[in-house]
Hints:
Layout: H1 24-40, E1 45-47, E2 57-60, E3 72-83, E4 86-92, E5 95-104, E6 107-113, E7 119-125, H2 126-139, H3 150-166, E8 173-174
Bound molecules: nickel (II) ion (NI).
Amino acid sequence: MAVFPIVKYGDPLLRKHLKEITDIPEILKLVDDMFETMYEEAGMGLAANQVGIDMNFAVIDISHAEEDEYPRIFINPEILDSTGRDDMEEGCLSIPEIRATIPRPERVLVSYLDEKGDYHEEWFDGLLGRVIQHEVDHLNGVFYIDHLTPAKHAIIDKRLAEIAETGAPSTGIVL
Ligand code: NI
C-alpha cells in the first residue's frame, strides 16, 4: 500500500468536473491506496482529484464516529434531490488548517455505483450525508468554502493564496 500526496487548493484538477468511470476494475487498483491516504491524513472522505486522479469517485469512512458505518466507495455519484437545511463545520485535506460552518441540505438522495458496479439510489443524512455532499462537490470541481458568503470568504482569501503558493496557511482560521 502507498500513501498519495494530497493535492492542495490552487491546483486546477480541483476545479475540474472529473471523468465519468466506465472501467471499475481500473479504479479498484487505486482504492486501497486512497483509503490508506485518507486514514493517514485523518480524513473522513477523499475524492480522486485530491490525490491527482481524474476519475469520478470518492472514498468515505466515518466508522470512527458511527460504529455501524463501514468504508464506502462512491463511483459517479450524483445528488438527485435534497430536503431540509443544516449547519455543520467542515474542513478539507486540500485546504489545511481552515474550518468553517457551512449550510447544506440535511438529507440528500444520491445515485452511485458501488465497487461491484451495482447502481444505487439512496437517501443519506447526518454526518454521512454531509461528507457525501462535500465529496460530490470535489468531483464537480467545487470546494466547501464556495458556499461561504462573500464576506466570510474574504476573511480566508489571504490564507487560500498562501495554501496555493506553499501548501499551508501562515495561521489557521475557524469561521
Ligand atoms: Ni475536501
